[in-house]
């Protein structure tokens, strides 16, 4: 789960990372009031869940509350990389002398969290990693021991941080580690961590990604979810406990089990098709869940055919069939459907679906080939095949 900059920074602050004073506004008037309270220059920042807001015109400096109001009114409602800005953060502006990148993520190869630091902060780190990878310093953190003092000093020395800022840096680096670890994050990033003209350190930007599987024990963070910024499909999927990831292919896949869902996507690819999504309806899905899954798949305009691949174990074939029929009744889909149904109560399921206008298949390979044929229209009609 992504959370906003202002939310990430509040979490960082709880762990001792210094952040600018500020407040969140949903209207220009509110922005004016916050800027007045802060006094002096402020920075008006769009709160959308993408990077590169600065370049997109979503971060603006204001010298007066009137200017803050004007910027807020320009930025609110603005479109940044397909997302509409609904909130702005008004932060006390800082005088920046230097921008540092400081982040933690998981290194899957090393099976450990890794702290990444670069003296070339402010810009997108992916860009630095691509062009000048040697400018990123990586230090692995043993999760049982935590970030060690010598590691922080090593990092500070490597980026040639002035000696007088080392102590502050230690507090920030260890605070970021504790925030990452304590929030079950998969990313915690400060970009930039600035050295101010007054020669102190301050986190002016913040970004966190939280492991969805840990949200059950991160109640405070789970509540930060911003429904405004989720697509309708994502909301329906979450409410129905479905694992759904939209992709950009043409074959909508409805499968039970994550492994089988991935296999299905692989086989679709093998036969020259493209998957429109990953969707795992889970074990023991009932008609209601299946119907929700179906509606989600069909709401994607790229979907040219739906491939239903159910291996009945705990999940019962007849329940799946009922769900499909319910959904068809409701949605009245115009795209063809290919069904492969085997396992528990598959017979009953197939009998239920017999009257529905569907293409059936015995094996996964056959189902995938038929779906690809329909999607690419290389075969006149897949039904005849
Ligand atoms: P991002 O573009 O989405 O990563 O947003 P950031 O919060 O990182 O802001 C982009 C850039 O705006 C930063 O790298 C800074 O150069 C600049 N910026 C952010 N806050 C301040 C500030 O308080 N004062 C000044 N002068 N510049 C700032
Ligand atoms: Mn940034």
Structure characteristics:
alpha+beta, Dna Ligase, domain 1, disordered C terminus, 19 strands, binds guanosine-5'-diphosphate, D-amino Acid Aminotransferase, Chain A, domain 1, Rossmann fold, seven-stranded antiparallel sheet, 3 domains, four-stranded antiparallel sheet, binds manganese (II) ion, 385 residues
Quick take:
This protein is of the alpha+beta class and 385 residues long.
How does this model look, in words?
With 385 residues, the chain is of the alpha+beta class. Helix content is 36%, strand content 25%. It contains 13 helices and 19 strands. A hairpin with a 4-residue loop joins strand 8 and strand 9. Helix 10 packs across helix 11 and helix 11 runs parallel beside helix 12. The two termini are 43 Å apart. The C terminus is likely disordered. The protein binds guanosine-5'-diphosphate (GDP) and manganese (II) ion. Guanosine-5'-diphosphate binds next to strand 3, strand 4, strand 8 and strand 11.
Amino- and carboxy-terminal Cα gap:
43 Å
- What is bound: which ligands? guanosine-5'-diphosphate, manganese (II) ion
How is the CATH topology of the largest domain named? D-amino Acid Aminotransferase, Chain A, domain 1
Strand content: 15-25%
| Number of E-type strands | 19
């Amino acid at each position: 789960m992504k959370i906003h900059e202002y939310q990430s920074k509040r979490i960082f602050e709880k762990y001792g990372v210094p952040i600018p004073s500020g407040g969140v506004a949903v209207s220009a008037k509110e922005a004016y009031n916050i800027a007045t309270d802060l006094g002096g220059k402020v920075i008006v920042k769009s709160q959308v869940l993408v990077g590169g807001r600065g370049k997109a015109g979503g971060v603006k400096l204001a010298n007066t509350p009137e200017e803050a109001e004007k910027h807020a009114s320009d930025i609110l409602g603005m479109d940044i990389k397909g997302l509409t800005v609904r909130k702005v953060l008004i932060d006390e502006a800082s005088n920046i002398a230097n921008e540092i990148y400081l982040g933690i993520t998981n290194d899957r190869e090393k099976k450990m969290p890794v702290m990444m630091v670069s003296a070339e902060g402010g810009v997108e780190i992916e860009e630095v990693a691509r062009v000048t990878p040697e400018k990123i310093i990586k230090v692995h953190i043993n999760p049982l021991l935590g970030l060690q003092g010598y590691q922080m000093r090593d990092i500070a020395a490597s980026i040639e941080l002035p000696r007088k800022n080392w102590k502050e840096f230690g507090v920030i680096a260890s605070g970021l580690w504790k925030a990452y670890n304590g929030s079950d994050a998969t990313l915690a990033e400060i970009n930039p961590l600035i050295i101010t003209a007054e020669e102190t350190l301050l986190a002016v930007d913040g970004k966190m990604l939280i492991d969805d599987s840990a949200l059950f024990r991160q109640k405070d963070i789970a509540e930060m979810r911003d429904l405004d910024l989720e697509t309708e499909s994502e909301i329906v999927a979450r409410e129905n406990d479905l694992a759904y990831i939209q992709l950009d292919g043409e074959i909508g896949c409805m499968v039970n089990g994550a492994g089988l869902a991935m296999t299905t996507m692989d086989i679709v690819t093998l036969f020259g098709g493209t998957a429109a999504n990953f969707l795992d309806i889970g074990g023991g899905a009932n008609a209601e869940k299946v119907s929700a899954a179906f509606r989600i798949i069909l709401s994607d305009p790229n979907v040219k055919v739906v491939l239903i691949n159910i291996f009945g174990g705990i999940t019962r074939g007849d329940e799946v069939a009922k769900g499909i029929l319910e959904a068809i009744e409701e949605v009245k889909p115009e795209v063809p459907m290919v069904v492969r149904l085997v396992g528990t109560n598959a017979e009953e399921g197939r009998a239920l679906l017999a009257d529905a206008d569907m293409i059936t298949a015995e094996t996964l390979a056959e189902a995938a080939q038929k779906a690809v044929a329909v999607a690419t229209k290389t075969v006149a009609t897949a039904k005849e095949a």
